[in-house]
Design brief:
27% of the residues are buried. The model has no long low-confidence stretch (mean pLDDT 94). The chain has 130 residues and is α+β, with helices and mostly antiparallel strands.
């Protein structure tokens, strides 16, 4: 498992948006913009159970996440690996991320929404900051 260097950690730890790529059932790519945070060398993000990206990751846990430095987009990192998904801590993570990115708890989920925590364990790290 690769260890993230300081430049990659700085990009992840900054208020930078990430794009997660998953694989659709027909093999085509699917991408979504997400908020993320680091837990050691793992990357965490939140999504909703039942969404296309969640169903894709449940079927095929291989993903790629690209993060651009918002102050210098030529500085970026791509992390590839496999994910695990859990409902434990889902609501707490989206509120933590929303506070980091928007300064308030996340209130946009419809009632009955099940939030999940997605943990990417990187197997390969590339990019201009890697």
């Amino acid at each position: 498992m690769p260890i993230l260097n300081e430049a990659v950690r700085a990009i992840i730890d900054g208020r930078n948006y990430a794009t997660v790529a998953t694989v659709n059932p027909d093999g085509s790519p699917q991408t979504s913009v997400v908020w993320c945070e680091r837990d050691g060398d793992d990357l965490l993000f939140s999504t909703i159970k039942g969404r296309r990206k969640t169903r894709n990751m449940e079927r095929d846990p291989r993903v790629s996440i690209s993060i651009l430095d918002s102050t210098d987009p030529y500085q970026y990192a791509e992390l590839r690996g496999t994910v695990t998904i859990t409902t434990e801590g889902g609501r707490e993570l989206i509120d933590k991320l929303s506070n980091a990115y928007q300064g308030a708890d996340f209130r946009a989920d419809p009632e009955g929404t099940i939030r999940v925590v997605v943990r990417l364990t990187p197997e390969k790290v590339t990019g201009h900051a890697a």
